Amino acid sequence: MDRTSLTVAITLFVCLRVSTNGEQCPYKECTCTGANVACEDLDLSTVPPLLSTNLSGPFVLVFENTQITTIEAGSLPPHLMNLELSNNPITTIDNSAFIESAATLQTMTFSSVAFSRIPDALLQITNLASLAVLDSTITDWNDNVMKHLGTTLLVLELDNINLKTWPEWIHYLVHLTDLKVVNNFINDIPNDAFDTIASSLNSLALYNNYLVSIPEAFKSLSSLQMLYLNDNQITDVRNLAQIQGPLFSLTLSNNKISAANILSQSLRPFELTLFGIEINHNELTAIPDLSFLEGITNLDLSYNNIFSASQLSLPPTLTSLDLDSNNLRSLPYNMSSLSHVTNLILNTNFITEINGIDFPPQVISIILAYNLITEITDTSFPDNSNIEELNINDNPLSKISPLAFKNLPHLNLLQMRNTKLTRLPISLALATNLDNFDISGTFGLVCTCEEKSLGSVIGTMNSDNVKGDCGLTSVYDFFVTLSHFCP
């Protein structure tokens, strides 16, 4: 082979870039990995020419961050399986652009495109299962196209497309299993909105809209398993109880729900199915009765207005309880009944004291930062406690009993930053398993020979695991160096 022929052969090999599944790369400007073709961040004004007319596919094709305005017939490789057009100023797609992928194209994403009407080109596609339209403004949804796609479409996502009213054409999509209409301006849903997909819809996401109540339209949903309603303006949840489906997971965070008793009643129909619920960032003033939800293991009630927790009726299977950022003045008195809870988050409340009899018996991790605790006593922790991690940062803590940590034989991590302590707690000598201690930000702290006994715990730790200073000397250096000069 002469030099010219060799150069031509090498060039063809590089340009075609045979992929790991034996397929050729359709464009020399793009990057190919297996069946994936990525044309990203390129200064393209048109779709580049195909390198071959004999491509067999299937291909997953992404055009992202280019200047392409038109997709012409014959410019796309045949046998496309997945097409994503993202952040391209596309205004026109030729009616014949998808003819060679009519039966293979299953997933399509339009993101930040410039056309305002769903293209007629989609009429050529016969097996599209998933369509996503994101960050675009579509004013004409082209009824003929949506009716055509309705015979095969299973998944639809409409994200941030400036929708102000419910798209009536959704009733054409009779096989939908997964529907997302999110980050829009919808405040009302017609009562018959889901009638044609009531038996097929498994997952429904309507988050970040302007709903103020649970729509009555939900009553027809007989197969619904996942429901995402976070980031709305919902105050009325009564229609939840009308859902006929099993409902496995429910997200209601970032709304304006305040009536704990109504929320509890509305969840009763799902006592045997619901295993996940999110109701943080609402306006609850009391903890709802959720004792009937035996599938719940993690419960997040953070960022509500809960001030009364005198009576807890929570799932017996609960292992983690988050009450961060509420208005609690004390620990709920019957919290000890939560026999499976191992993680307890109570930071950013108004708790002034803690008592060992109030803690769940199996608790391992407790966060009590940003409260109003001033003292830790001999009875602050339960007998024979399993607590391994304790965080009491940012409390006005000024007094710790010499026997305060006698019930913490498993304590491994102790955080008590930014307190009002002036001396190191002698009780630390009882925490023989302590491996990580942080008392930084406690600016009035002094270390004296009276605390020399703590050297058996602190002096044996890794220096990186001991944080805090006694005046100009680090706590660690005091016990490793200076305490040896004590009488």
TrEMBL record:
Pfam families per UniProt: LRR_5, LRR_8
Entry keyword Transport: no
Keyword set includes Signal: yes
Stored SUPFAM superfamilies: L domain-like (SSF52058)
Extent of the signal sequence: 1-22
Swiss-Prot/TrEMBL keywords: Leucine-rich repeat, Repeat, Signal
Name of this protein: LRRNT domain-containing protein
Protein species of origin: Candidula unifasciata
Phylogenetic placement of the source organism: Eukaryota, Metazoa, Spiralia, Lophotrochozoa, Mollusca
